[in-house]
Design brief:
With 339 residues, the chain is an alpha/beta fold. The chain has 12 helices and 13 strands. 44% of the residues lie in helices and 19% in strands. It has a 7-stranded mixed β-sheet, with helices on both faces. The protein has a 6-stranded parallel β-sheet with strand order 3-2-4-5-6-12, sandwiched between helices. Helix 2 crosses helix 10 and helix 7 crosses helix 8. It is elongated, with a radius of gyration of 20 Å.
Amino acid sequence: MKRVGLASALSAATMAVALMVTGGASAQSKFQCKPDETYVMNVMVSAHPYWVPVYQGFKQAAQAMGCKTVFSGTPDYDITKQIASFEQNLIKKPAGVLLHPMQADPFIEPINKAIADGTTVVTFAADSPKSKRVSYITSDNVAEAKFAAEEIVKQVGDSAEYAVLENPGQSNHDLRVTALIDYFAKKYPKMKLVGRQATNQDANAANKAVASMLQANPNLKALWIPEAGSAEGAVAAVLEAKAKVLIIHADITPATLEQIKAGNIHMALSPNQVMQGYLGFVATFMAAHPDLIDPFNDYKASGYNPMGIPFADNGFAVITKENADSFDLNKYMEGRDPA
């Protein structure tokens, strides 16, 4: 299996800290939770299969430290409902929340209030960078976009027509789309963007959008999609039109995995979800226990959390027909507790 991650000192240091934290739990017991110390993972569209392995990683780290976890969020794609679920989590005073904010700016005030009231917050997969969240765990969305761009050129040439679907307002999805468009404009200027449509993770909207793109652009050769929900509708539209369009998308669902196995989707670039949850928990625990470090900086005078990690890269996997069996969620979850 191919694995791609950010080769930076920051991400390497973060992973090293994570290993030291879990390794030191039994030896020193400083990296152990107090009785009933609880950490929450909060998301939107809570039934989406993407969260399942992320929460497994979150739990694996928590169990190693004797901590309790709660999976929470809203089943809807609704920023107001997600904020309400986040605020409901805070009533029980958890030690920390690992949060996937649906949109960045609406979460600034709720995150800042949570931290002011004593609950630390770390974001993952999508960010609220203007808030006081302590750390951010994600895959490198720019690296994903560059990888997708190079694969598209490798498969269809450097002077083809391409299109993108998007989900405006969610930071990681925005970056995946804009980075690919910018990369083509700078490195492969003959690549022509002929379609750009917001489908907001809706398979039906994606089906209609791609069907219209194919009618208007019969020479369309490639599609880049920043998430899996829209990819489900896009591939259906391509198959219905009997068109030959290279499809690459980010993330993975059981439905798109089957399309990869069938050869209808070329590949998916999926964040290493279990590592995302594992690192996410470690970062949240660290943020809740800043007394475990005595750094050589001005954190006391500046008033920031010394355990802050501006960005930790959990890496991403390249999923193709050849290695698709390794990403079967049902097989992974055999014998595991989803709760």
